[in-house]
């Protein structure tokens, strides 16, 4: 289950609550992956320079919301105001590999990143998936420029060996502030149709729908029905369309589309491609806007999808677990084993993480798999961690094996308990008792008026 968000946030700070945006109170099964594409994130020079050194406020915000629920930030990519974040449940980490990011500037003839696309691709259970968050040129008359820019973004190539081109991925999601408008109809007709919830009257004049009928490269992209109000342009903190002097005509600028490669390849061979042969399919469960959010002049749009995969990978590359009881009173051991084809490296490491860790660098401590190895045989290896590195207070933790060659976590343990350091606790209790005994009898404060 994949939940995808696109939102032009208009340089605003995160809202107080995103429960409904992320459907966190949904009665159905929880999401496996969140993909969050933002446009117009505040990118003033001071903000941008600090964001290069640290996570930006939006990334921190979503990590704070999602990490306690068992999601980690798998990847992110930022280009000025464009930000793409991907969060996944812990259980899927060993089956996500070859994660790569890319960005394409299209503003000022490719020299400026205020418009363009940011992209993350990965192998998910052996299937190739690509996510593309775009901000295309504005204004009614720029349809051709939007299409040209999107074609340019599609042509970009990821760095690295054997990575397919964008359109060669099994599934490609395309979303963002695509800036397509409603042509021909006047503002009064558009607003009247919206007020009467007769959105279907506007669909045929939506510039993206019109382009899909003419442009071959767009015809392979699918989209859910636009059964929600156009998401642009609103007065701030309201559901009232633009009352400024410009009185922008409402439009479905914020969109989510997808393309399944095997459907495209077999579209012309109807009847030759059975359900049994299909290894991956995408089902749209809902496609809605969220009118309650008013921090910008756009309303966020979400798409909830079911990805049905026949796993091409079903075993993790590395399995690992803690040996014996863990506490900071003694050095501890980790056992792990790898499949024969695993491309290990001297730079691989095993990290100790709190169960609600935020991202791969959020470890408490780590051990190098070669430098800290203490035993090895054909079935498994053992690595030690120093007692000095284990948290005294204990708690619930996970072990993760990070592969330097694959640049990803390739093994994750079951959660386990680290016992509190009894020596330290007893010492703290003794100090507390001593300090209590030394306190004066009269603890009342004397206030003089």
List the topology elements:
Blueprint: E1 2-8, E2 33-39, H1 45-53, H2 57-66, E3 71-79, E4 82-89, E5 96-107, E6 112-124, E7 127-135, H3 143-154, E8 171-177, H4 187-195, H5 200-203, H6 207-214, H7 216-219, E9 254-260, H8 261-266, E10 280-289, E11 301-309, E12 318-323, E13 326-327, E14 332-338, E15 349-354, E16 365-368, E17 373-376, E18 381-385, E19 395-403, E20 408-412, E21 416-419, H9 422-437
Parallel strand pairs: 1-2, 7-8, 13-21
Antiparallel strand pairs: 1-11, 2-4, 3-4, 5-6, 6-7, 8-9, 10-11, 12-14, 14-18, 15-16, 15-19, 17-18, 19-20, 19-21
Q: What's the CATH H-level superfamily name of the largest domain? A: Endonuclease/exonuclease/phosphatase
Percent helix range: 10-25%
Q: Main β-sheet: number of strands, strand sense, barrel status?
A: 6 strands, mixed
Domain count: the total is: 2
The number of distinct β-strands equals 21
- Would you tell me the structural class of the helices and strands? alpha+beta
CATH class group of the largest domain = Alpha Beta
Strand order of the largest sheet: 3-4-2-1-11-10
